[in-house]
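Re: export button greyed out
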Amino acid sequence: MLEKLFTDIAGIWNKYGMVYLDGIKNTVILATTATVIGCVIGLICGILNTIPVSSRDPLPKRIFLKIVRIILRVYVEVFRGTPMILQAVFIYYGIPYFFGVSFDSIWTVSIVVVSINTGAYMAESVRGGIMSIDIGQTEGAKAIGMNHWQTMTGVILPQAFRNILPQIGNNYIINIKDTSVMFIIGFSDFFAVHKMVSGAIFTYFPSAFMEMFGYLVLTLVASGLLRLLEKHMKGDKNYELASGDQLVMAAGTYKVPSSAEPFEERSREFGGKR
Amino acid sequence: MSEHILEVRHLSKSFGSHQVLTDIDFNVSKGDVTCIIGASGSGKSTLLRCINLLETPTGGEILYHGQDVTGSRIDQCAYRAKVGMVFQSFNLFSNMTVLKNCVYGQVKVAKTDKAAAREKAMYYLGKVGMQEYINAKPDQLSGGQKQRVAIARALAMEPEILLFDEPTSALDPEMVGEVLDVMRNLARDGMTMLVVTHEMAFARDVSTRVVYMADGVIAEEGPPSQVMTDPVNPRTREFLARFL
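Workaround output, generated via the alternate export path:
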């Protein structure tokens, strides 16, 4: 039985191997690009969602922010609450229907659909990630005069990013698998190859077997890469003391110099500058 | 124009129906070291947070060099950059090294160039005795060390006035001393400071003025020699009796 399966697979592979590989390539490119763009969308939504408003702000600003928040809410609910396969059809046929322009490439529309779908999920993950960071971090940043954008990009999101990395991994793996629905608008991903090949030579099961195996390998590699990234982002546990300067005193024995001696160690450390 | 750096006028703050601060009036001049003392819940920290606009006051005004900062027209970030704050819980940026903590605000907010910002950061880290820890992350430091870095970070912005919100309350007893030493030196250097504290000895020895708060109002204020040794208000006397 197994022998027959492997012969069939070998037969398909000899004839269509390159087509399958091409499908894998398209799947990986689409899933990766769309995940990256989706993350950027999610981060921007997170920044916009957390702009602080107080009752002392001028009315136009408050109204504007309210509208921004409503738009983001609608975006998230619509794209999280409808099937991606339908979103693809909706956008692919909807845009020409209303605006009379069609997409010049199936790639553009595919990347757009998967990105905004991922963005809707990521927006919520980023929101959770931001909420998980201690409010003290924001206050510390505010207290030295940093604005919302500087606080978010410099302090909060780098920390939140580590917390949402598992979510990004989830979305990446989901995208690798779920980009298969893009065959509906004619995108030739890995799964589309299966439909095409088995439609031509009626080898449904052997081809499906190859697909299962292929997708599993892709997602395993993806989750492995993400674990590496997570490990990398944890950073080094050790740090070097910036000694080498004999005037730097050993830890714990340091006495804060009184203001009477205006810190000679500094002037020597910097070669007497300033 | 007024000669005071900061004037707080009729300031009030309520959280919902809970009135935390009522009609607070006081001034800060250059070189003042003002200690705000009082029982927990008396509104000391809220007052400090209102001054730095971390809380929005519900009434009254805060004048910085004669200009009201509570309205929407002023640049809050520019104002905060000139009014430093040191927190009870340090609030160092945990994604940055000690050095970057002290450099980041200078570069992003004050637009200092990187080399100068680094040099200034090193200077102030030296002042608090943390210059050898520049490569450490905040999580790798003790509480006292973190607070000293937090003070250096605030100083690196070269603020006109530095607010301390119970800077030693979260520290183990043996680390309180190192932080108070740093603050004592700052006071001696002429830094204008507004300190919310439970360290009565520090208030007595270092401050130029002591403000005693109770139930959201200033119950008594004056030079430490008077407020701390010969208080007029019986509540101040009762409060101090528990400490001295």
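The mean pLDDT of chain B is 91. The button fix ships in the next patch.
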